[in-house]
Structure formats: C-alpha cells, structure tokens
Amino acid sequence: MQNLIKSLVWASAILAAAIIAKQNGMDDSESFALTMGLMAAAIATLRPAKKCSLGC
Predict the structure, then answer these.
(1) Which residues are CB-neighbours of 30 under 8 A, at least 6 positions away?
(2) Within a domain: residue 56?
(3) Is the dihedral of CA 8, 10, 14, 16 positive or negative?
(4) Number of domains making up the chain
(5) pLDDT in tens for each of the 56 residues of the chain?
(6) Which domain covers residue 15, as residue numbers?
C-alpha cells in the first residue's frame, strides 16, 4: 500500500508540473525534459533497493 501511495503522489506531481509548465509558456522540449526528469526521479524512488551483487 505504501508504494501505491508514493506512486500516486509522484503521478500527481508529474501531471501538475506538466500543466504548470504549459500554462507558463514553456516550450515543448523544455516541458518534456522536466517531465522526464521527474519520471526518472519517481522510478528511482519507487524501485526496490538492489542488493550488491559485485561484492561491495
């Protein structure tokens, strides 16, 4: 359940950033870069931690 809540928060943040970027007149490529950056941060946050397989 915790992961579901986190993903919904990230989704709303990404959508809000995209809407605000368009309303402020950002170019398509700039708003795309902003959205992709937030999406990458969301994926990194939601992905389960990997165990070190290279002998850390």
Answers:
(1) 21
(2) no
(3) positive
(4) 1
(5) 688 999 999 999 999 999 999 999 999 999 999 999 999 999 988 887 776 666 66
(6) 2-46
Cβ atoms within 10 Å of 18's Cβ, excluding its own: 16
Residue 54 lies in a domain: no
Q: What DSSP character marks residue 52?
A: P
Residue 9 domain flag: yes
In the chain, what are the helix, strand and coil shares in percent, each to the nearest 5?
75, 0, 25
pTM of the model: 0.76
